[in-house]
Each structure stands twice: as structure tokens, then as C-alpha cells.
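Model it.
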Amino acid sequence: MSLKHPSLYLNWYVQVPPVKYDFRSSGLSAFNYNLALGEVNLSTNYAHGNPETVALLAKRYGVAPGNIFSSSEGTSGLNTRIIGVLRQKNPRKKQAVVEHPTYEPLLRQVQEHFPIIKRLHREEREGYRLDAEKLRKITSAETGLLMLTNPHAPSGAVSRTRELKEVMNVAREYDFYVMCDEIYAEFNRNALPTLFSVDKKLGIVTTSFSKAYGLGGLKMGVAIASMELVDEFYADMLSTVGVFSNLVEITVAKLLTEGYETMEKHKQKYLRLKKDTEKLLNEKDFEYFPNDFCITYWMKLPVKDTYKWMHEHAIKHHSLAGVPGAFFLFNSNYKLAKSDRIRLGLGSLNPDKPNLAKGVEVLEEALKDTI
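Modeled.
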């Protein structure tokens, strides 16, 4: 069955031609590791996840093993599955709220299951903070879900405990779930509270190690939720695809134990690259929203329509690509809004041989050519 609401952003991302200066990726790459798994029983499957992996994940997030749902669908697949389960759980709740701006695939995943979508606007002039009073004005007894990101995609703004508590107060008032994609929090997991730690009944966290450690090819997703919900997620999994890949979970367990130091060292290379980037952007007076976590920058350019500029000028004439801001600014339709923003990501750079300085210089040249 085809999706009713496919992602324009993901379709665009894979169709961009190869470029010399690629600033599209928001997650680490170039991570190589000798797994040396040894002899593995490839016949074994677990209906509730590999016990060793689940225990390691539970320890990482300070929860009980029964609060962990592990999935080899990756975070995007896991998000879609959970949204579907929540919609089926209470069919009369036909409305969902999605923050704006947001990562467009999240919006489309919610649209697949909830016929009524409202937007919670996070304003730049307010530091993209979560506003519980704005939320209260657009929610009702028909609201079944609020979809958030923390750190916020695309700005990188962080919601601390107080903001999250205020949001969960509204959720309890109208009895709806709040699902928070916290994949970027893994860059410094100890520095941010999980939404689940704020509310263990209505709060749901989804995350993975793909962005912060370069494990996108592993397709491992993690959810943290009440034991009741976790059981429902596993039941839905069994009813649709059976059990997920135990080999993926064995690999994750090995990486979180023997390979963890190597993963952390790889991440630190990119965090140093992040510091170098900020220094360059400041030296050249580029305007961007402060970002303490992710390896991306929500930048303002002196261009009224960065989508048009990116395709007709930067990619074509300078072999340079970032993500046009328009992809984060959809309402509920597919109309591309004009935006002066881009998301500049460092994930496609090789931290050992970065062409960062030249890339920023080319970005500056491309802008001068059009202004």
C-alpha cells in the first residue's frame, strides 16, 4: 500500500546530484568498526528484544527493561509504527499537533494516521521555545498526540525540564500522548532529560544512535514508554512483521560495550569539527541560531528563496548543497514556502580530512555571485 503523504524532503535529498561541498547531512558518517561477532546462533529471535541489548539500553536511559522497545526499523520506522498504534488505541481522537517548523517526514508520518493536524508554532524571536499556553489553545478532548523534537529540528533549541513539565500538564489535562524524537540528544545524552522522565504515562521518547555515532546503516531504533505501551508496540510488531533482527541487537550490544570507547572517539572528531565551523561562521559574520548539541546550523542567508537559489545557483554553479529551509516550513500541505534559511550540516565531511574551510569559502562566493 502506498503512502498517502510521502516526504518531499526525503525524495529531494536522494535526488540531489553528487556535489563537492556537501552540507546536507545532519548525522555522523565514516564510522568503521571490526565487529568480529564470532559464532552467533542465527536462528534465535526474541519477541521482546534481545535481553542483553534491552538491559544495556535500560541502563543507559535509567529505566526498567520493560520500558524499552527496540526496533530494527530505525527511528523513522519506529516513529511510524508508534504513531499508528496510538491512533488505533483511541479512534475518536482524530486530531494531532505537530510543532512548526519541524522535520518534514515527522509531519507526514502523523498525517498518515491523524486526519486533523494542528501546528504548535515555535518562534525564532522566542528562541524556538515550547509554549504550553499556545498548546492549550489548540488542543481539546479530540487531541490524541503531540509530536515534538528535542533538541528541536531544525533550530537545535533545547527544551529543559520546566518547559517539558508545562507541556505535559496540558497533555494530562486533555489526556493525549506526547511523543518526542530525541535522536539529537545522543550527542550529549546526559545533559538533557528524557521526556519519559518527566511523565512516565503519557510521555514517549524515540531515539537511535544513527546521528551521534554514525550508525545509520544499522537501522536500530529505540523507544522509551510505559510498560503497557511497550507491550502494545511489540504486539503490533508481531502482528505485522514478526520479530525484528536479533543480529542488529547483538551488534548494538557489542558496540555499547566493547565498541563504546571507539564510538565516543569518533563522535569527538565531529564535535571538534563543529567548533571549527562555528569559528569560521563567526569570522565571516554568518547569522545562525546557537546550537549546543547537533552538528547542524539553522542559518539565515541574504537570499529570499534558498530553495530556488540552491538548485539554480549553488548546486549547479558551485557544486555546493545544504538543505533549503523550505523543507522544514510546510504547514499541512505540500506548498514550498519561500525561506531565507538553510540547514548547514557537517555529517558528510570527513573529520580526518575536512574541506570545511574551502566549503564555507565557496558558500560565501556563491552568495556574492547572487547578491
